[in-house]
């Protein structure tokens, strides 16, 4: 696992006050180290990880506490949520961020090992489930979930994407425990397996599906938003740390709120900052984190998200990854309520922005929105050499996708984009005269 320790030398990790958020009695003149586990490339956690770290808001909040303590922040970077949970239950990470299914494992492991943790805030979410996608190789003949029966599918077991895979297969009448061969692989390994042909499909979380599709190394098979079940990423904190250092946790949550405001107010700049820190293409980051991207960012712990979390428990139990999980006792929004104060109610009531077609012109720090996908296509056709990226919402789920990677349907005078071929074909089958067309044809028709 790649680990990055920032703002502190390796020697500081050996100091008595550095572990577990510092000594409970640390006071004036003391040094306390706070360790944050995050996933730099899981870009729906950026307001509690990559973007937050680059902006330095947490360190600034800690400096403003005025309690006479010197705070050192260690940022540890991981590929998935599982190792963050392992480090938290070992008392080595104080605050972590991860997806919804890993959060449940975090809750279960914490209780099992007598190191209880709590969900204290949310980072990015999609109320329909669009954060996870199943993809296949570009030349694959697989076009629907039913085609996956008997195939090898790569995913990270216990991840949010694994949860989407299990639910999607079940709805398609496929037993995920017997009708497929599941390969438990880290995202990068799964991507290599797909490219090598040793995996027929890959189910992963952000930003892997969008990245592979953008690079021409995969095509979408299933849009997770078809499940119409919320998916999200959140922040978890060790209970003992929160009780010992409530002001530090509140400082983190205030900083997260600041990072959220920055992302929502400067989506293009935020995407470029995350791209610079992670090596991901900014166009891929914007697909998820943009003004009309797949994710909506807000720290409030919404009841709909908690309800979805409860439904995920059955998935983990069926996979024998956990037993029962008491979600109500795991969720603790007291700290974020205090951190956000009067604005928390507004955050709780906030709704995702309406889906829109959007173009990112080359050399611009702003994007352009259009009333319809056809209008966007008309613009792209007239400005082919100056378009950095173009995004359109799936006609049925609203999931944003790259216009040139979408599956297009011509229905009379309408041009409709879809993330996956099965969804596009299903629409065409229900509408007389509608048919699937190539992107080049869609551009020509729009022009």
UniProtKB/TrEMBL annotation:
SUPFAM superfamilies: NosL/MerB-like, Periplasmic binding protein-like II. Residues 85-270 form the SsuA/THI5-like domain. Keywords: Signal. It holds the Pfam family NMT1. The keyword Signal applies. Residues 1-21 form the signal peptide. It comes from the Bacteria. PANTHER family: ABC TRANSPORTER SUBSTRATE-BINDING PROTEIN, ALIPHATIC SULFONATES-BINDING PROTEIN-RELATED. This is Nitrate ABC transporter, periplasmic protein. It comes from Streptomyces echinoruber.
